[in-house]
Amino acid sequence: MDPLSITGSTLLYPVIGYPVGQVKAPMLFNKVFAASGIDAACVPMEIAPVDLTRVGPALFAVRNVRGAMVTIPHKPTCVDFLDEASPAVRAAGACNAIVKRADGSLFGELFDGVGFVRGLKRAGIDPAGMRCLVVGSGGVGAAIAVALADASAAALGINDVNSVSAARLAERLPAYTACREAFVATNDPQGFDLVVNATPLGLNETDPLPVPVERLASATVVADVVMKTDFTPLLRAAQARGCTIHMGREMFIEMAPLYLSLFGYDGYTSEGIRKLIGYKD
């Protein structure tokens, strides 16, 4: 937003993460606020993990901070700040949206998963009955796994370099969802209908690919949550093998109205957001 439009009554919605150079939320939400005449601003705040337990809760003591968005790697840790959490937060053990209510208490939500599934369905991809591999069991991976289970995926393989984290998520899914089969998997994509990169791999061009792409079948749908660029190294490699690909920005656009509604700004749709920011199919 135009810095000259910030006033003494401007409400603040930080994006908490480490790093934050890749985040798109400030660009999107500040356009929405400006177009709608809302006296609010979305600002990135880079908080190192070692500082989060000290800085995070104190941030909400600032009177004009009315909510926050949470990105990597803070989604699991921010659950500890909440007074109340949604079922999705409890199922995934992660939070990507916090609102400060009138009494000062903090309520947490998790929109990554539902945004991801909505984006898939908008693209004509229904995860019902699919065998899905989710690479990454952190905040976004857990959220996506929960949402895919709720969308009637036939099976969910969870892969993570942290095998304990992957196992905990696989064990948690049947307790909170209608998931019939959840298990710890390798990153081998063979035999899966949908492969999701829910790790930060791809933020840098020199990152290794999250799955061995030579094992991808052309019928596999490959999705990436990395939003630094639309065509990540994984998506480019998958497209070259004939796979249907799905960009991270779709999840982001579908989440935007959910964030706005949580913060008290109703009436927005993903199509309206798409037009406002100039995203085309």
Automatic annotation (TrEMBL):
Keywords: Amino-acid biosynthesis, Aromatic amino acid biosynthesis, Oxidoreductase. Gene3D superfamilies: Leucine Dehydrogenase, chain A, domain 1, NAD(P)-binding Rossmann-like Domain. InterPro entries: Aminoacid_DH-like_N_sf, NAD(P)-bd_dom_sf, Shikimate_DH-bd_N, Shikimate_DH_fam. Transmembrane segments: none annotated. Pfam families: Shikimate_dh_N. It comes from the Bacteria. The keyword Oxidoreductase applies. Pathway: Metabolic intermediate biosynthesis; chorismate biosynthesis; chorismate from D-erythrose 4-phosphate and phosphoenolpyruvate: step 4/7. Residues 15-98 form the Shikimate dehydrogenase substrate binding N-terminal domain. PANTHER family: BIFUNCTIONAL 3-DEHYDROQUINATE DEHYDRATASE_SHIKIMATE DEHYDROGENASE, CHLOROPLASTIC (PTHR21089:SF1), SHIKIMATE DEHYDROGENASE (PTHR21089). This is Shikimate dehydrogenase.
